[in-house]
Structures are given as structure tokens and as C-alpha cells.
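Quick start: what a row looks like.
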Amino acid sequence: MKRVIKMKKEFKHLLILGVLTGIVCLAMFLPNILNHLPVIYGTDLKPEQVFFNMEFTNLMNNFFKTGTLPFYSWSMFLGTNYWASQTFYNFGDIFTWLSLLVQQMNFFDKTLLFEIIKFFVSSYSMYFLLREMKIETKIRYIGALSFAFSGWAIFFSGQLMFHSFYCFVPLYFLGVERYIKNNKKILFLFMVVLLLISNWYYFYTVSIFTTLYYTYRYYVLNKNFKNYTVNTLRLIGIYFIGILICGAIFLPTIFYMTGNDRIGINHDLFFGDKQVYIHLLASMFVPNYLYIYRGNVFETNWHVTREICLYAGSIISLIICQIFAYKDKVIKIATLVFYGVIVLIAIIPMGNAMMHGFSEPSFRWLFLVVLLNIIIACHLLNDFENIDKKIFKYVATIICILVILLVPFSTIVSGSISSLLSEYFIQWILFVICSILIGFVAFILLKKKKNFMNYLLILTVLEFSIFGAVLYTTNLDFSENGSYEFFEQVTHVLQDDDNELNNYLDYLNTDNYEQYYRVYVPHDSIYWYYSHNMSVAYQLNGLMVYFSTYSPSVNKLKELAPQIIDYSSAMIFNITDPDLMNFLNVKYALVLNENELPSKINWELVDDNYRGSIKVYENKNYRAIGTTYSKVLSSTDFIESETSVSELNNIIVCDESDVKEIEGFLGSKNSVNLENVQYGGNQLTGSVVSDDSTFMVITVPYDEGWKILINGQEVKKFEVNGGFIGIPIEKGTNNVEMYFTPQGFKLGVIMSGIGIILAGVVISLEFIREYKKRKLLINKGIKDK
């Protein structure tokens, strides 16, 4: 009976939290719903993630239809290892998989639906963590809402994969908590698997942070380090079992990402701009998502500094600083030492780089500090009687004054004091408002009148609702570009139905059915400047991409032809060089005007009225996807001699170590092509007839996952001509077969199998232990009676 009453009471608490979370969500998104406008916050939702979701849906539908695993994407740039590259974006995201159930919905409607669900998941997962920590119910509400609608959660809600990871993080630390307290391992094991599959990038960050957090919580809960080593080693064992389970996805990603040039080591000890440090402090007290993309006194023209988000509401902002007023010296000292390490990591570029995979510095990892702040603040609020009220007043006063002075101080540091009352006045007003809010919270806590916790809870809901509503209302795009109709139009300029354009192009020439060819479409006119990933929307073999985890072999092409970089970005590519276009098998161009055609190519008009206004041109000097060569040059000599990229059509360019071996294949002086080409899914086949041994360049990006057979025998592949595949060709008829399986996948499957077996052992042992424990308690109860 007691258990039923307890369950009903808990259900009531969860229902109340759901209502409070729903109120904030309604306040944030009601303007978009009323104005029938897509919710868009963040820079990458439109140019990147909508198209990655399209490709995921296409490949998964093909998998359900044919059983072909989604290893390779032909539509993403020049061809991409989809399995490994998309683990960063959506391949392991549970919400992306759920989106398959509502394919009929518009992408932005699906996004809104799942973002709201993520806010609820964030709220409940934080609630459960705080419940495990014995925090009083109303404080749990405050902590849960503070986590769900923190500055980090709002700012990165436009990065769908980041928000998906974020909402489950408290459950991971709930697993840590249960292990320290009760030696329970199952939840931790499950969350390791879920988080690693969701996003390996943030899982790495969480793993680094866990070493510090676990040590801190172990000491706080046990007041000593007795059995620390043994217990820690056990937890590490569980951690690695979780990693093993993810082997089929994680191992191919490791092999793939080690070639990405974003991975490196940063040794800087200081940020060059002092504004970074001021913003780091300010972000804890103010919802900086309201001004990051507007008049921002802390702007350094570096995207990294826009990712500084620590805000989690006025209550958390105030209470977390009261650790100095806490009377329990053991917890106080342990917490301050922990924060000392965290602050050190945050203010040193090398520390931030460490949390970012030893690449460039990044403040994205601060979501872990947000979580820590909420946990500590809720503990302090839960034990408010142990806070020195005199010190509390001093700290609260200092915070209020500091928040008001941060903007003026920053203008002085940056030398822009004259802009304080013009360009940065609105931002300053926001800081003043937040200072008043913090002061009001301090007043409520010091007066501590009846139902004071209700006032704090109401304030929390109002604060997040108002700031959220302001954000999304001011980001409403009433222009044509911001409408559902615009997105529908821009993704249907070239076709109405999937593969309609490809079928049309194939029909133009019967040879097309046995060829692989790429299509040039100008980004500015036909694609309306919308995205470099538009080829995905049209299932085209395109020439542009915006993609942070692009194929590592593209770095070789960047070395030989840096002009492929667009918008001066390391992640945006657009191939418009006519020599490269010939090399990369461009056969058709779709333009509005003839002057949009790249020069030096023998274009012939084949249709001047496609879909009413689009002109279709054919490259009469189309070059097949596979062509044999008779000359070879090292890439070093190619670059140093400043050889024109046009020579990629005539010379094999390879690493110095491969020159002599490739020269040994060059018997024929005649160039022949790969014919009878068929491709799709994870394979490409064709045939070539040569009068002597020779060497063929196949313009598919090089990846170790490709297995290449000639007449049934596997042959060695080489990375040539800027990151493409080169293979030796024998005299006579050569039947070429290429099959793609991500490097490390087979070993990863074995790892996953081992991990699942070990996990089964761990789970079984824990159930047996719990069964014996319950049986012992029952027997003890009978004896006591």
C-alpha cells in the first residue's frame, strides 16, 4: 500500500514538472506556431542538417527495401563514407531514427516536435539525477528546468545532434551516482552505450570530465578515498564494455576521423583577446543567446567565443557562488578544488583544446559545467540553513554590482566606451535586468517567507519563458526566405519527385545508363544561395558540400587545388575550376544563363527550357570515371613545380613512395576508359580492355574501406591525383568490381559481439546480487518477527 501511495505521489511530481516544462516550451514556440513559420535558431540547421536528415532517410529506406547497409553515400560531395562520417551528425541519434516514423512531416515540423521532446527529456533526466541525490522536490523542479532551458541548451538547440546528446547526459551521471552509492552498474553501462552511439565527439568530452567528477563525488559521498582504486577500476571496466558494444559504429569512425585535418594539438596558454575572459564570466549570469548574433560587446569575430554558454537561470547564478558561504568545510573545500581545476581548463586555450579532442579551442564542453553548477546549486539550496547569511549578503551584492558593470567594463577594455549608449545599450539593459532578478532571488531567500520555494519556482518558469519567447520572437523571419513555402520551392527547383532529374538526364543520352557522371549546378542562382548540400535534395552527384566530417582524402585535393575551398571555410567546398570539372567527370551543367557556364569546357546546349527557364548543357569532352594514364609524378614535385591542375587529366600524381611501383605498371601508351559502369549502394562495377598493362585513376575519393577486384582477384589500391583511387590494370579484359565496407567495421562487429556477451555477464551478476540481497532482507525480516 505504501509503495502504491509513493508511486502516486511521484507520478504527481512528474506531472507537475511536465506542465512546467510545457509552459516554457509553449512560451518559446507559440510565436512560430501562430505565425506559421519554421523554428530556426543556429546557423547550421538549414544549410547542413536538413540535408543530412534527407540522406539518412533515403539510405535507411533503401536498407529496409533492399537490405543494403547505409555504408556509402554517392550524393554527398564526390562520394562519402556515410557510416563513419555521420556518427557525428545523426547516424546514432535516437531522435533521427524516430523521425523515420513521421517521414510525411515537414522537416522543420519534425525538428520542432523532437526539440520539444528533448526539452522534456532534459527536464526529466535532470529531475531523476537530483532525486537520486536526495534533493527536495521543488528544488528538483528548479534544477530540472534550469538544465532543460539553460543557455547552452537554447543556443545549441539548432545543432540537433548536440541537443540530442545533452538531454541524456544527466542519466549518465545518475549511473555514476548509483555506482558510487550502491555499486549498481547497469544504468552506467547503458548510458555509455547510448551516449557513445549518439555522438562520439561529446562522449569523448564527457569521458575526460568524468575522471574529475567521479573523483569529486566519490570523496563527497564517502568523505575518504577508501577502496577508491578498486572501485574505480571496476567502473572503468564497465566503461570499456560499453565501448566494445559500440564497436561496429565507433571503430570505423576512429579509422575515418584520424585522417581529418581538424585533429591536432594546441599549445596556447592565453587567449589573445581579453573579451573572452569577460564573456566567460558574464555568460553565467545572463542569457547570452539573446545577443550573441546581435550587438555583442564581447564579440571577437571568432565563432569559438560565441559558444561560451553557462547561464542556467538567476537562481543557479546566485546560489552557485554561495559555495564560499557554505559551512560544511569538507564539501566546501572539495568543491572549490574541483572548480579550480575546471576554471583552469576553461581559461587556458590548451585546456579547451583538450576538451575538444586536442584540436582548436572550444567552449562547447561547458554544458558539463552547466550541469555541475546546477547540481551544486541545488545541494546548497537544499541545505540553505548551512549557508552563512552574512556572507550570502556580501556575495549577492557583489554579484549584482558585477553584472551591471560587466558591459561598461568590457567597452573600456575593447576601447569602445563611446558605443555603450548606442550599439551596446540594449545588451547593457539585459544585464541590468538580470542583476535585478538576481537581487530579487537573494531577497526571497533572505526573507524566507512562507511558501518562498513556490516563489522561486514561479520565478524560474517566468524567467525561462520570457527570455525564450523574446529569443524566438526576435528571430522570426517574416521574409519569403523564412517561410515553409520557400524551403519547399528551393528543394524542388529541379524536380518534384525523387530521382526525377537523374532520370531526365539519363534519358538525354543512352550512354548515360552505363556511365558515372557529375552535374554542375551554380550555388548562387539555381540553388538560391541556400546550401552547399543541395545535391542531396536532388540525389545528384554534385560538386559542393558544407560538411565538417568530409572525406579525409579531400585534404589531398585541397593541397593540389586550394581553389576548391569556398567562403574561406575549411568545411565548405565548391568545385568550379573547369580543369577539375573535366577531371571529375562533369557531363552536364544546369544554369539560368549561358554566362554561368565555367569556361574552357566544350559545352553544347541540349535543352533550353527545362522546367520553364533552366538551360541544360552537355560537356562534349566528358571524361569517364575511370581513365588510364602513362605518366607519373610525385605530389611534392607537382606542388613545387606549380603544375596546372589541368595536368591531373594527364599525369598520375602520387606519394613519393609510390612513384616507382606505379611506374612498373605503365606498359601501354594508349588511354582507355572504364566502361559499362554500374553503381549504387555500396558498390561500383565496370570493365576496361587494354593492349598492355597500365594504371587507371578512378575519381572516387580514396578510402581504405574500398575492396577492389579485377577478374575476381583483389588488387592493391593507391591514393592518387588528390585523394582518389588508382589501380593497376592488366593486359586484356579487366572486369572491375569495387565493394565498400567501412574500414574497421568487421572488427567492430566482433568487438560489439564480445561487448554484448560481457554486458550480459555483468547484468546477470547484478541481478543475482540484487536477488540474494532481497532474499537476505526478507529472511532477516522473518527472523526479526
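That is the whole record. Residues 626-740 form a domain with the Maltose phosphorylase, domain 3 fold (CATH 2.60.420). The longest helix spans residues 745-784.
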